[in-house]
Specification:
heterodimer, A: mainly beta, four-stranded antiparallel sheet, globular, B: six-stranded mixed sheet, about 0% helix, about 55% strand
Chain lengths: ~120, ~110
């Protein structure tokens, strides 16, 4: 079945540094990928929709200059958390959908801790 | 517009007994509905999906769900709980396009 790989699975960084998270579709091409954020014991919050070859679409309240999204190929989208602060600590999950298929496939998530 | 309500934030069952996780939805379009499971510090795994075919949907690991339009419900059931079923479960609706709306999740606890 379709697999979405997310890397790294966890990362610890210092306040003020930037962190890049990768999301790859391993056996299908994904023109659209989605980035979610999940706070402890809460549901997933859609941050942005990543579109291959064009700008990402951000949800209301998400700072596009802080959460940079690049979808350079049909199998890779990256999320860069710039100038990270402790409040950015969270669980970030990406997802992608196979062409003409309805369910989303999710990566295993990245636990970001900013110290 | 669409929304989904998971009626129970926590459900606790004994191993071997039935599981019922409740979900109600609203959608302006003919909805597609999904149940996902999330184990700690992991991504979401699709359990099953409803996309306007059979109203009783069978998924993986013995789970199934029934789409009831008159009740706007899509409850998840399993005849006999296993310890490995302990996890967070999300009911998800999409009414069109790419946007999914997630429920707030139900934490399932399975006791010996």
């Amino acid at each position: 079945g379709a697999v979405v790989s997310q890397h790294p699975s966890w990362v610890i960084c210092k306040s003020g540094t930037s962190v890049k998270i990768e999301c790859r579709s391993l056996d299908f091409q994904a023109t659209t990928m989605f980035w979610y954020r999940q706070f402890p014991k809460q549901s997933l919050m859609l941050m942005a929709t990543s579109n291959e070859g064009s700008k990402a679409t951000y949800e209301q309240g998400v700072e596009k200059d802080k959460f940079l999204i690049n979808h350079a190929s049909l199998t890779l989208s990256t999320l860069t958390v710039t100038s990270a602060h402790p409040e950015d600590s969270s669980f970030y999950i990406c997802s992608a959908r196979e062409p003409r298929a309805s369910p989303l496939h999710f990566g295993n998530g990245t636990r970001l801790t900013v110290t | 517009a669409q929304s989904v309500t998971q009626l129970d934030s926590h459900v606790s069952v004994s191993e071997g007994t039935p599981v019922l996780l409740r979900c109600n939805y609203s959608s302006s379009y003919s909805p597609s509905l999904f149940w996902y499971v999330q184990h700690p510090n992991k991504g979401l795994q699709l359990l099953l999906k409803y996309t306007s075919a059979a109203t009783l949907v069978k998924g993986i690991n013995g789970f199934e769900a029934e789409f009831k339009k008159s009740e706007t419900s899509f409850h998840l059931t399993k005849p006999s709980a296993h310890m490995s079923d302990a996890a967070e479960y999300f009911c998800v609706v999409t009414g069109g396009g790419n946007k999914l709306t997630f429920g707030t999740g139900t934490q399932l606890k399975v006791e010996l």
